[in-house]
Amino acid sequence: MKIVIMGCGRVGSTVATRLDAEGHDVTIVDLETQAFRRLPDSFGGERFAGSGVDDRVLIAAGIREADAFLALTQGDNRNLFAAQLAKHLFRVETVVTRVYDPLRAELFADLGLRTFSPTRISADLAYDSLFEGR
Amino acid sequence: MYIIIVGAGNVGYGLALELYGNTDYEVLLVERQRQRALLLREELGELVVEGDGTEVTFLERIGARRADLVIAVTGDDAHNLVACQVARHYFGIGRTIARVNNPRNERLFQLLGIEATVSAAAAVLAQIEVDLPEQALIPLVKLRASGLEVVDLHVQEEAAAAGVALRDLELPERTTISLVISGEGANVPDGDTVLRPGDEIIAIIDQQAEPQMRALVSAPLPPGAEPREPAP
Q1: What is the CATH number of the domain that holds A97?
Q2: Which of A12, A97, B154, B160 is most enclosed, with most CB atoms within 10 A?
Q3: Comparing C-alpha atoms, which of B210, B212, B214, B182 is closest to residue B196?
Q4: Topology classification of domain B127-217
Q5: B positions 61-100 inside 8 Å of A (CB)
Q6: What are phi and psi of B143, to 5 degrees?
Q7: Mean pLDDT of the residues in chain A
Q8: pTM confidence score
Q9: Using one digit for the tens of pLDDT, what is the confidence trace for B73-108?
Q10: Angle at A98 between CA A93 and CA A101, to 5 degrees
């Protein structure tokens, strides 16, 4: 699968490394070239410096040929914007978006995006851990 | 009418001042940056509130449910898009206007049904074109759904269209000449109407046909001159 990932933070770099190791064709985009230091030397995918909310950057990163797009920057709105560019303008089949705000994550899931909220997931985990083994 | 303006930069601030004092409108200006919000609050008081215009819980608190109109005019297109989408789809606000900073993003706003988009670059271009009297074609209104637009044409000396009856003119497809304004006033033309230099025409044309229409009513170019690049 050809996969474009926006955001090379801890989550972006980890999932990029895993997908690359599994043999997928991965391109990771980040504004800061320093962010690519999070990738291991073994990473065989492409590193692309630029803003994922700019359609020209996405095109240069190969969004037209991509089967999947993951929006994983720190900014909810940036992620939602880039994800909708990928889905509606470039017709990427699978688009995954991280949205910290749980309400916004739900709303955009209702609008047809595949979203997940780390806030909700962490809160649920914290809660479940509290009562584990009681 | 309750209007929420998201973003208190120059555009949002100017807009709020414009609407402020009109008793038909209840206006709230939302600004995310604390310093900017505090500064404007000193001047405008309760009109300004600090908060994130894309966040559901904040919008709930400022009464977004009863808002009639949201205008998102920050310098960030992602923020403007999401503010309008949250307003429409979460709060059911019927009218949203987004400022589109990068004209290349206008298409995405359209695709997502954020109909009223105001591109600063396009507005400035339109203003420039209105101010230039020698312009042969001035776009007035774009009709998005049909790809048509209303234009104002000025027939120049020695233009290809001058001195020719309308029925003999080769017009681009989907062209409707609605009104011909001459020294005698405005008239609805028919096939016998002959265009004269100095006439002004209101026409509905295909948005793609601007270059052809411009060429028809423009004075011929001097030999060797380059045709003017059409506005983007």
Answers
A1: 3.40.50.720
A2: A97
A3: B182
A4: Alpha-Beta Plaits (3.30.70)
A5: 76-79, 81-82, 85-86, 89-90
A6: -100, 100
A7: 95
A8: 0.70
A9: 998 999 999 999 999 999 999 888 898 888 888 889
A10: 135
